[in-house]
Amino acid sequence: MASKTEDFELIAPDLGDTDKIELVRWNFQLGDQINEGSEVCELVTDKASFPMESPINGILARIDKEKGSIIKKGEILGMIRRKVSE
């Protein structure tokens, strides 16, 4: 049985009425295994911090925004890849 992969983009959520969202920490490195529900990275606004959880089991395949980046809602932060059976 062959396997293929699916990619899931980590997209910055709408965190309400804020102009500045900072990506303060990645909790994983490229190639690391991530479990569904794991806190992949942390976003901070002037009001609170928000952990971003993985929606799937997979590996961190790409980081688009580095630690310390100022981001906007809807921007792609990175990508998680999982293997799926056909």
TrEMBL record:
Q: Which cofactor does it need?
A: (R)-lipoate
Against Gene3D superfamilies, the record matches this protein to: 2.40.50.100
Q: Which InterPro entries match?
A: 2-oxoA_DH_lipoyl-BS, 2-oxoacid_DH_E2_comp, Biotin_lipoyl, Single_hybrid_motif
Keyword terms: Acyltransferase, Lipoyl, Transferase
Is this entry keyworded Acyltransferase? Answer: yes
What's a Gene Ontology MF term here? acetyltransferase activity
**Lipoyl-binding domain: from which residue to which, for each copy?**
10-80
Give the source's domain of life in one word. Bacteria
Per the record, the coiled-coil ranges are none
Instruction: Give Gene Ontology CC terms.
Output: cytoplasm
Subunit structure comment from the entry: Forms a 24-polypeptide structural core with octahedral symmetry.
Q: What is this protein called?
A: Lipoyl-binding domain-containing protein
Please give the organism. Answer: Leptospira andrefontaineae
Q: What is the lineage of its organism?
A: Bacteria, Pseudomonadati, Spirochaetota, Spirochaetia, Leptospirales
